[in-house]
Amino acid sequence: MHPAVKLRHIRAFLDIAADGTLSSVARRQGLTQPALSRTLAELEDLLGVALFRREQRRLILTEAGFTFRHHASLAVQALEAGAAALQPGTARGAIRVGILPTAATRLFPRVALRFRSAEPDTLLKIETGPHPYLLDQLRDGRIDLMIGRMPIAGDMAGLTFTHLYEEEIVLVARAGHPLAGQPLALLLQSVPLILPPEDALIRRSVNDYLATLGLPGLRPAMETVALAIGRGILAGSDAVWFISRGVVAEELDRGDLIALPTGVRFLSGSVGITQRQSAQPIPGADLLVRLLHETQTP
């Protein structure tokens, strides 16, 4: 690496990559936009590659930019961990965890509380969001592990997956739904249908199931995997919702929602822990993984 590359270059690059604009990053760093632009230009000159391309008002990473961000992020994390290790009496560190909806309402809250009791000095930084977003965060080193559905085979390059349990996709409705005893093909055409978004891992399985009912391409009224939104819509209507059981497990246990029988077994999938193959050991991560195995909640 060119000896003139400084940590300020790396931090500026990582912030721009995360934000996509110069103006907001410059404000946060207390710089003028021209000064930040010069810092980025210096880094690109020193590396000999273009790290971004402009699309309208945003800066989009080039292929070289994606590659450099991965390594630069890991390097900054290692430096920060090294600096923290030299400070006696400070917190042990932090573990950054990405939680997909299927693990967010029951599994991970229980694990987080057990982890807190065992490791009170380790901070759990919890990130939530859709699968593609968290997968990008994992690859870029911005989270240390991801908990939820197993990624598809095409997304597994450079990653490892540890299975925890199998979880089904359920069709849920409010308790007392007036059409609960109707054939599903008829019911699904008679009431508002809520599906997972197109980029959700479970959407393909749901689409395949709808095809077996002779309803390929059935248009949903809404798309979400968010518990608060789905629960609120079901409570105030006759809508039905295809969703991972883990998202609505508490509501099913309380009887607020009911699961309508689908009659098939292929509406299920593996839930577990996804990590980078090349990730460095993180203090406390082994305990977190062990607690996930012990607390798994199908």
Low-confidence stretches: none
Strand element count: 11
**Number of helix segments?**
12
Radius of gyration: 23 Å
Derived structural class = alpha/beta
N-to-C SSE string, H for helix and E for strand: HHHEEHEHHEHEEHEHEHEHEEH
Q: In CATH, what is the class of the largest domain?
A: Alpha Beta
The percent range for helix content is: 40-55%
Overall pLDDT, averaged? Answer: 89
Question: Shape from CA axes?
Answer: globular
- Quickly give the CATH architecture of the largest domain: 3-Layer(aba) Sandwich
Termini Cα gap: 48 Å
Strand content is 15-25%
- Give the tally of structural domains: 3
Main beta sheet, described?
9 strands, mixed
CATH-level-4 superfamily name of the largest domain: Periplasmic binding protein-like II
CATH topology of the largest domain, which one?
Answer: D-Maltodextrin-Binding Protein, domain 2
